């Protein structure tokens, strides 16, 4: 069996790489999660080194396709979506999917900043006071604002099936699943209260989780558990 893809992302983290993993798993194509293999970190670091590669990425995830390196989650999914039937066929549809993916990236960044509002290089324990303030705003204002938007996208989609784009599953749906999954881990009380207000989003989450390839992945050792070194972290004091 050939392995057309090599994914470079940090070992032990779902992070931004998980959005790519879900697309690869749903597509059913073989790939290597490089950093989880022996010597993988050296290969990951090389993909970021401008002295070694022509187009270095600023940070993972990076996807190697033959001699080509693709960086940035949305950029990788733009490629995989077109290659594996996880995006609309038209240019207009693909740009719309990419726009939604970039919006997902915005809320993912805000979720990270709830526990690191002052500095990404400082420990959470050194910024707990600021984190409580940031998390309160995120819970009460920002999460509902983003979920309102994505619920409206699903409601207004003229395609059948309750998807975000068109009438069949796209990488945007997989990414919305991962977004809701991460928010539910980090803010379980908040998301439990919000869930009834977003029937379309949570129905989509359930639908994605039941897809055979995704379900098999979620129940496998390839799926890295949520943890407190990741983007979505559960600190009970931030979910009050």
UniProtKB/TrEMBL annotation:
<dbReference type="InterPro" id="IPR040079">
    <property type="entry name" value="Glutathione_S-Trfase"/>
</dbReference>
<feature type="domain" description="GST C-terminal">
    <location>
        <begin position="97"/>
        <end position="231"/>
    </location>
</feature>
<protein>
    <submittedName>
        <fullName>Glutathione S-transferase</fullName>
    </submittedName>
</protein>
<dbReference type="Pfam" id="PF14497">
    <property type="entry name" value="GST_C_3"/>
</dbReference>
<feature type="domain" description="GST N-terminal">
    <location>
        <begin position="4"/>
        <end position="88"/>
    </location>
</feature>
<dbReference type="InterPro" id="IPR004046">
    <property type="entry name" value="GST_C"/>
</dbReference>
<dbReference type="InterPro" id="IPR050213">
    <property type="entry name" value="GST_superfamily"/>
</dbReference>
<dbReference type="InterPro" id="IPR010987">
    <property type="entry name" value="Glutathione-S-Trfase_C-like"/>
</dbReference>
<dbReference type="InterPro" id="IPR036282">
    <property type="entry name" value="Glutathione-S-Trfase_C_sf"/>
</dbReference>
<dbReference type="InterPro" id="IPR004045">
    <property type="entry name" value="Glutathione_S-Trfase_N"/>
</dbReference>
<dbReference type="InterPro" id="IPR036249">
    <property type="entry name" value="Thioredoxin-like_sf"/>
</dbReference>
